[in-house]
From TrEMBL:
Pfam families: ECH_1 (PF00378). Transmembrane segments: none annotated. Keywords: Isomerase, Peroxisome. PANTHER family: ENOYL-COA DELTA ISOMERASE 2 (PTHR43684:SF1), PTHR43684. InterPro entries: ClpP/crotonase-like_dom_sf, ECH/Chromodomain_protein, Enoyl-CoA_hydra/iso. SUPFAM superfamilies: ClpP/crotonase. Gene3D superfamilies: 2-enoyl-CoA Hydratase, Chain A, domain 1. It is found in: Peroxisome. This is Enoyl-CoA hydratase/isomerase family protein.
Length: 260
């Protein structure tokens, strides 16, 4: 399972690539654990100055692997997906997301914590939590209304509507949209080089100043969301919706199951 997350370190840049194309880069507990381990380690490694997170040129991530998710759902606040959230929100170094294609569920909420988000025009950002009987995660219930306003946030979080790459840029969820994955990945590396060329202590202190006022509130929201998320998994409506989704995905050949 560890080879489903590839890592490359070069000249101060750590690139983490979700590499499970046959499952649309759906994330398992083992993959969450691996991502969290590398991000925590990157924060302690002075040779790493910038982190790029991508799913390659065709798909970012379609969210949780549904089979793995239902077999081993999160049951406590240190579950693998929640641990990844902690790693990302505590990272002291610039984080760049190169989003090509689908970014479903945590694939979108993760972007709210990145310093730069680059997308392809055919990107599909969507957070279908309510549709499957769950609740928002990764601080989205706090951050999206502040970023977009209540009405737009409700379209994404309550109605589960999606955005393409150009719409994500227009709404302020991404910085720039590109025609294809190769351009998107190249742009991410160029921005990483810009970060590398900056005075590093000044960069990190400035980044900390930008984030510190809301950190306590964000961490409290994460705890509240994650606690409720665990509770929601045990409700009849969530079980019904998730099982229906699983049945639809397993009817396909091969299954590509993942949504939450």
């Amino acid at each position: 399972m560890t080879d489903l997350i590839k890592q490359e370190q070069r000249d101060g840049v750590l690139t983490l690539t979700i590499d499970r194309p046959d499952k649309l880069n759906a994330l398992t507990n083992a993959m969450y654990t691996r991502l969290a381990d590398w991000i925590f380690a990157a924060d302690e490694d002075d040779s790493i100055r910038v982190v790029i997170l991508t799913g390659g040129p065709n798909c970012f991530t379609s969210g949780n692997d549904l089979v793995d998710f239902l077999q081993e759902p999160p049951t406590h606040l240190d579950s693998p997906a929640f641990r990844l959230m902690r790693a990302v929100t505590h990272l002291q170094k610039p984080l760049i997301a190169a989003v090509c294609g689908a970014a479903i569920g945590i694939g979108t909420t993760l972007l709210l914590h990145c310093d730069q988000v680059l997308v392809t025009r055919n990107a599909k950002l969507r957070m279908p939590f309510v549709n499957i009987g769950l609740c928002p995660e990764f601080g989205a219930s706090l951050l999206l209304p502040r970023l977009l306003g209540q009405a737009r946030a409700a379209r994404l979080l309550l109605l589960g509507e999606g955005l393409n790459g150009d719409e994500a840029v227009a709404w302020g969820l991404a910085n720039e949209a590109f025609d294809d994955g190769a351009q998107c990945l190249e742009a991410a590396n160029k921005i990483a080089q810009r970060f590398l060329a900056m005075p590093q202590q000044s960069l990190r202190q400035s980044r900390q100043l930008m984030k510190q006022d809301g950190m306590a509130e964000l961490q409290a929201t994460l705890r509240e969301e994650n606690t409720l998320f665990i509770q929601r998994l045990n409700t009849d409506e969530a079980k019904s919706a998730l099982n229906a989704l699983l049945n639809r995905s397993t009817d396909k050949n091969p299954p590509k199951g993942n949504q939450p």
